[in-house]
């Protein structure tokens, strides 16, 4: 009965000690900054219903599918698999995780083994040279053999190691959010470039049509001149207009080639690889439905907001690391080093040599350095909190701006479409009237240039509407939810480089 009580008392003592150690973690505990956000966006036309929010949440995982373009979907898949910025960001996550593991290793005993063997010679030309123990002849030469183990264990009584590991874990989470931000930026850039490619190809088709119209106008001016109705001035004007239209076509071809090169680099391949696949003009992607959302979705999905929040958590943990420096430090050093001059003596009792201590150190006077480090950590944490709030404000501004642009695009594009139709009709009528001799050639040039400008303006407006749709999806933090972190591995296996790695964690 007494032995049972003793065992129960020992267990209770161990549990109590463990609880005491856990309770001794110094420094502030992290509390998320509760920033007040509006219930709805100012630029949103109506309050989103739960069904609309659920639809948007599902669409956020692969928002590029909403544009209904199979070629864009193919490019996105290839970019996710091959983009180098994304792969670099994945390696940074691995690096931060390794640093986290390095910090956590301080919790465990640090053990090293070693051995030494060799010969040494001492000078005998010194007066009163003492007789060395174990060598009564005082020979100057001696053999030395030794082996041993040294160990140290840092007792994390006040949580310095725990706070360091916590801070490094938050740093890992920051790199995860960094990779998500890289992914979103890449998707936005890829989709934007693809929209520009299709728009430029459309404008190139417009330019080709305008060249044919200018050729017809030149031929008409020459025919009327030959019939004695026209003048050489009209022929020269028509020829100049044709050459101007031909010249305007070449920059568009250059731009198409450059955009194709940019898309190849985003996909992690040599520029020009996709030229054959993308050189064929395709229709502009369709504009998706407006994504209904609420402000809380932005807080939950924007990687920059999530990263800023993790940075604040890391900075808070760093305060605990600085505060722990003010408290006593406990450690247990241990060494075991037998030594002798002959191999058969090395394992005898007389050759044994060992040390075992319980060490404690208390900071007494450092000229205010330790308290200054605490103040610096506190200021850094407050700066991180303020940076989080600034990031939230900037994110909401981007969402509001993207919503405003999306809504304004609809009416803007519709008016430009009407203007393009009316300008084309006016140009056709001007050519008919000119062929009948009812208007001058200057009227033909004016209406043709107006029609060209209106058609190009409509194409640019349609591009802007597509780009604003991409910007809104990016602003609300869409795109990373359906893409898992890539499984990266070191190019060199540690197990093949270190024989003991198969038995111990180094």
From TrEMBL:
Domain of life of the source: Bacteria
Lyase recorded as keyword: no
Localization annotation: Cell membrane
Pfam families (alphabetical): OEP
InterPro entries noted in UniProt: MdtP/NodT-like, OMP_efflux
Coiled-coil intervals: 197-224
Membrane topology term: Lipid-anchor
Keywords carried by this UniProt record: Coiled coil, Lipoprotein, Membrane, Palmitate, Transmembrane, Transmembrane beta strand
Listed NCBIfam families: outer_NodT (TIGR01845)
Family: Belongs to the outer membrane factor (OMF) (TC 1.B.17) family.
Designated name of the protein: Efflux transporter outer membrane subunit
Source species: Nguyenibacter vanlangensis
Taxonomy of the source species: Bacteria, Pseudomonadati, Pseudomonadota, Alphaproteobacteria, Acetobacterales
């Amino acid at each position: 009965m007494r032995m049972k009580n003793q065992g129960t008392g020992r267990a209770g003592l161990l549990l109590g000690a463990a609880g005491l150690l856990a309770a001794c973690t110094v420094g502030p505990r992290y509390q998320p900054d509760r920033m007040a956000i509006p219930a709805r966006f100012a630029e949103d036309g109506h309050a989103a219903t739960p069904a609309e929010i659920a639809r948007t949440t599902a669409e956020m995982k692969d928002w590029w599918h909403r544009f209904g373009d199979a070629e864009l979907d193919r490019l996105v898949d290839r970019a996710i698999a091959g983009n180098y910025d994304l792969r670099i960001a994945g390696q940074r996550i691995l690096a931060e995780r390794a640093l986290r593991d390095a910090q956590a290793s301080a919790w465990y005993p640090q053990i090293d083994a070693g051995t030494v063997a060799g010969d040494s010679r001492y000078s005998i030309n010194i007066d009163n040279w003492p007789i060395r123990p174990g060598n009564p002849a005082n020979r100057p030469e001696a053999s030395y053999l030794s082996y041993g183990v040294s160990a140290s264990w840092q007792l994390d009584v006040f949580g310095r190691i725990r706070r360091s590991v916590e801070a490094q874990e938050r740093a890992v989470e920051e790199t995860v959010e960094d990779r998500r931000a890289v992914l979103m930026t890449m998707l936005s850039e890829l989709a934007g470039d693809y929209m520009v490619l299709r728009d430029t190809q459309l404008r190139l088709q417009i330019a080709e049509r305008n060249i044919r119209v200018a050729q017809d106008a030149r031929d008409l001016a020459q025919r009327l001149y030959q019939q004695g109705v026209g003048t050489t001035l009209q022929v020269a004007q028509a020829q100049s207009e044709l050459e101007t239209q031909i010249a305007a076509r070449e920059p568009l071809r250059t731009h198409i080639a450059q955009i194709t090169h940019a898309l190849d680099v985003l996909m992690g391949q040599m520029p020009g690889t996709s030229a054959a696949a993308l050189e064929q003009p395709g229709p502009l992607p369709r504009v998706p439905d407006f994504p209904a959302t609420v402000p809380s979705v932005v807080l939950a999905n924007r990687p920059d907001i999530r990263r800023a929040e993790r940075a604040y958590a890391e900075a808070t943990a760093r305060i605990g690391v600085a505060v722990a420096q003010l408290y006593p430090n406990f450690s247990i050093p241990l060494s075991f080093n037998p030594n002798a001059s002959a191999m058969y003596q090395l394992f005898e009792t007389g050759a044994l040599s060992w040390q075992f201590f319980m060490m404690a150190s208390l900071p007494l006077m450092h000229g205010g350095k330790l308290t200054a480090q605490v103040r610096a950590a506190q200021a850094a944490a407050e700066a991180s909190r303020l940076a989080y709030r600034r990031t939230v404000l900037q994110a909401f501004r981007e969402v509001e701006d993207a919503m405003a642009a999306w809504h304004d695009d609809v009416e803007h594009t519709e008016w430009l479409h009407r203007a393009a139709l009316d300008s084309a009709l006016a140009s056709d009528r001007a050519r008919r009237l000119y062929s009948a001799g009812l208007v001058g050639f200057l009227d033909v040039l004016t209406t043709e240039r107006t029609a060209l400008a209106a058609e190009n303006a409509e194409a640019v407006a349609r591009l802007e509407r597509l780009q604003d749709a991409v910007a809104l999806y990016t602003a609300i933090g869409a795109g990373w939810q359906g893409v898992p972190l890539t499984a990266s591995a070191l190019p060199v296996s540690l197990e093949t480089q270190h024989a003991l790695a198969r038995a111990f964690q180094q």
